[in-house]
Request: fold
Amino acid sequence: MAKSGKSAPRAKAKADAVAVTREGAEEAVRTLLRWAGEDPSREGLLDTPKRVVEAYRDWFSGYAVDPAEYLGRTFEEVAGYDELIVLRDIRFESYCEHHMAPIIGRAHVGYLPTDKVVGISKLARVVDAFARRFQVQEKLTAQIAHCIDSVLKPRGVGVVIDATHQCMTTRGVHKRGVSMITSQMLGSFRKDARTRSEFLRFIDIDSHSHH
Reply:
């Protein structure tokens, strides 16, 4: 019973998403413009709803892809390489699910392969696919780590994200220059302090935390 109760709202959410037409989305933008005190019918704003809807299609394209598929094509001929692989400074733009304001930052990803490695561009695509959704930074960090862990089955995974949140820098408390750092360590990255410290040394988080 509990299971069907959980899936029902999800099914309804999916149906609602399908029910929103492009015209409906554009009308929602006009409503927000009026709410802000503007006149959506003035010349400079006539095409704004259309542009915003197009921008949303791009900003939230992550909903249309399965990030795990990017990791499907692996290379097993690695001549026995089993040391740390780290990709740092993967820049991303996301949107916070609380205020729909930008989260801009960089992700650092590392893993200890078993017998499979993946092309570096694919790791960056995984970050991008999860970032192009409404997000919470902690959730984004965990999603990237668990996706890599479940597909590549490495001995360990580490993900660190360093980002600034426009909902904090442009409204409310107005604290500029504040960045938030989150990390998710799985497998040997969590269990072995030496692996973890090697990863953190590789990404040099202290000197890379300025935007």
Summary: The chain is about 45% helix and 20% strand. The longest strand covers residues 85-96. The chain has a mean pLDDT of 88.
